C-alpha cells in the first residue's frame, strides 16, 4: 500500500514538473510576440485616397450648387400639336435641364385645350378605323399578330384585341380600383402595394390599345413626364392669369434662379421684365421669331431648335454671357445717399478753412480772387516763361 502511494506521488510530481517546464519554455516566446506587437509600427494612413478602391473628394460632399430652373408651359397658347405630348414634354425637360437643375415643371390650360384633338391625331385615328374594317373583312392581313400587353395573348385583328382588353383587363382594373377606394388606413396601403405592378402594367398597355374618351390623353401624358398639370376655368385668359400668379409667387419665394417660359403670348412680357429686374435668367420657347417675348428674354428658342437639341449645344455660351453680366452688375456703382452718409458723415459737405493773415483782416485789405482765363484747363499750371503752357499768358 505504501509502495503504490509512493509510486502515485512520484508520478504526480513528475507530471507537475513537466507541465511547469513546458509553461516556462513557452513564456519567452509569448512575451516576445507581445513585445513585437507593441513595437511593430502601425501603418499610418496619410489620406483617405491612399486606401485601395476608395476615392474621396470634398467636391463629392459639397458639390457646386446648380442653378434652379422653373419650367412654365402655357398650353392654351402653345399646345404640342406637331409632337406627341409625352415626347414634347421630355424634350422640354431636357432643354431646361441644360440651364440648371429643373426644380419645377408647371402646365396650365382650360378644358378646351385638353379636349382638343390635333389634325395629325385625327388623321391617324381615321386611318386606323379603315384598316380595322379591312382586317375584319379579310382583305388585309397584318404582317405580325397583335399582342396583349397584359396577358401576352396574340390576336390577328386589332378589333379582337380591343374587345379582349375591354372585357377582361379593363373590368379587372375597375374592380381593383373600387376595392382600393372602399378600403381605408393600413388595409388601403397594403392593397395599393399589392396591385401597384398590375395597375402600372395595365396603364402601359391601355395607352397603346384604348382610345381616350376625351382629347388625346394630353393631361395624362404630361403627368407621366413629370409636369404638374392644372385645369382652369373656361373664362378668357384664365390660364394666363393663373400662370402669371404662379410665376410671381415662385419669384417671391426665390425658389428658382432661371425662368423658362413656353408661350408666344406677349402678355407675359411684364412678368419677364420683372424677373430680369430681380436678376433672374429668362428663356423663352416659341415659334414666333420676332415676338415681344423673345426681345425681352435673355435667350429664345423655337420648337424645332428644342427638338434638335440646340439649347443643349449652346448652353456653355449662354451661361458664360450670364456670368459676365453678373460680374458687371457687381462692379456697377450706384449712388445711395443713406449708404454714403453712413460711410462718411461729412464726406458730402465740403468745409474748407482758409488761413488768412489777421493783420490783413484788421487793416481792411482783402484777398484778391485769382482769375482763370479761358485759354485752357484749370488743372494745368502755367510756367513763368509760358513754356509748356496750355493757354496763352496774360
Descriptive account of the structure:
The chain is of the alpha/beta class. Among the domains are: 68-115 and 218-329, Rossmann fold, CATH 3.40.50; 135-210, no CATH class. Helix content is 52%, strand content 9%. The protein has 16 helices and 8 strands. The strands form 2 sheets. Strands 5-2-1-6-7-8 form a 6-stranded parallel β-sheet, with helices on both faces. A hairpin with a 6-residue loop joins β3 and β4. α6 (158-182) runs antiparallel to α7 (185-209). The N and C termini lie far apart (154 Å). Residues 45-62, 346-354 and 387-391 have low confidence and may be disordered. This is C2H2-type domain-containing protein. Keywords: Metal-binding, Zinc, Zinc-finger. GO terms for molecular function: RNA nuclease activity; zinc ion binding.
Sequence-ordered SSE layout with sheet pairings:
Elements: H1 2-39, H2 58-61, E1 68-74, H3 85-97, E2 101-109, H4 111-115, H5 119-137, E3 146-147, E4 154-155, H6 158-182, H7 185-209, H8 218-224, E5 228-231, H9 238-252, E6 258-262, H10 269-277, E7 281-285, H11 292-296, E8 299-301, H12 303-308, H13 310-313, H14 315-331, H15 337-343, H16 358-363
Parallel strand pairs: 1-2, 1-6, 2-5, 6-7, 7-8
Antiparallel strand pairs: 3-4
Helix pairs in contact: 6-7
Radius of gyration: 43 Å
N-to-C order of helices and strands: HHEHEHHEEHHHEHEHEHEHHHHH
Q: Please report the total strand number as a whole number.
A: 8
Q: How much is the average pLDDT?
A: 75
Strand content: 5-15%
Strand order of the largest sheet: 5-2-1-6-7-8
The CATH architecture of the domain at 68-115 and 218-329 would be 3-Layer(aba) Sandwich
Shape: globular
Count of alpha and pi helical runs = 16
Largest sheet: 6 strands, parallel
| SSE class | alpha/beta
* Fraction of residues in H or I helices: 40-55%
Amino acid at each position: 500500500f505504501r509502495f503504490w502511494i509512493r509510486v502515485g506521488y512520484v508520478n504526480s510530481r513528475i507530471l507537475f514538473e513537466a507541465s511547469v517546464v513546458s509553461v516556462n519554455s513557452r513564456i519567452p516566446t509569448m512575451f516576445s510576440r507581445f513585445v513585437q506587437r507593441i513595437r511593430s509600427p502601425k501603418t499610418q494612413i496619410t489620406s483617405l485616397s491612399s486606401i485601395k478602391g476608395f476615392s474621396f473628394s470634398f467636391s463629392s460632399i459639397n458639390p457646386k450648387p446648380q442653378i434652379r430652373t422653373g419650367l412654365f408651359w402655357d398650353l392654351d397658347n402653345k399646345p404640342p400639336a406637331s409632337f406627341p405630348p409625352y415626347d414634347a414634354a421630355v424634350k422640354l425637360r431636357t432643354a431646361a435641364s441644360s440651364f440648371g437643375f429643373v426644380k419645377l415643371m408647371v402646365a396650365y390650360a382650360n378644358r378646351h385645350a385638353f379636349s382638343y384633338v390635333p389634325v395629325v391625331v385625327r388623321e391617324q385615328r381615321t386611318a386606323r378605323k379603315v384598316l380595322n374594317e379591312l382586317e375584319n373583312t379579310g382583305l388585309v392581313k397584318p404582317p405580325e399578330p397583335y399582342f396583349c400587353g397584359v396577358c401576352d395573348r396574340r390576336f390577328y385583328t386589332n378589333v379582337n384585341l380591343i374587345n379582349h382588353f375591354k372585357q377582361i383587363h379593363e373590368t379587372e382594373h375597375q374592380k381593383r380600383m373600387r376595392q382600393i377606394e372602399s378600403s381605408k388606413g393600413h388595409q388601403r396601403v397594403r392593397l395599393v402595394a399589392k396591385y401597384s405592378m398590375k395597375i402600372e402594367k395595365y396603364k402601359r398597355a391601355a395607352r397603346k390599345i384604348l382610345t381616350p374618351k376625351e382629347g388625346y390623353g394630353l393631361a395624362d401624358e404630361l403627368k407621366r413626364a413629370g409636369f404638374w398639370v392644372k385645369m382652369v376655368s373656361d373664362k378668357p385668359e384664365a390660364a394666363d392669369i393663373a400662370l402669371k400668379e404662379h410665376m410671381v409667387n415662385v419669384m417671391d419665394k426665390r425658389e428658382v434662379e432661371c425662368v423658362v417660359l413656353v408661350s408666344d403670348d406677349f402678355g407675359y412680357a411684364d412678368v419677364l421684365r420683372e424677373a430680369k429686374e430681380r436678376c433672374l435668367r429668362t428663356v423663352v420657347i416659341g415659334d414666333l421669331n420676332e415676338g415681344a417675348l423673345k426681345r425681352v428674354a435673355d435667350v429664345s428658342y423655337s420648337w424645332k431648335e428644342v427638338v434638335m437639341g440646340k439649347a443643349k449645344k449652346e448652353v456653355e455660351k449662354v451661361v458664360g454671357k450670364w456670368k459676365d453680366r453678373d460680374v458687371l452688375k457687381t462692379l456697377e456703382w450706384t449712388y445711395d445717399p443713406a449708404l454714403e452718409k453712413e460711410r462718411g458723415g461729412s464726406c458730402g459737405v465740403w468745409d474748407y478753412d482758409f488761413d488768412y493773415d489777421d493783420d490783413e483782416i484788421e487793416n481792411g485789405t482783402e484777398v484778391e480772387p485769382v482769375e482763370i482765363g479761358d485759354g485752357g484747363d484749370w488743372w494745368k499750371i502755367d510756367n513763368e516763361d509760358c513754356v509748356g503752357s496750355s493757354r496763352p499768358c496774360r
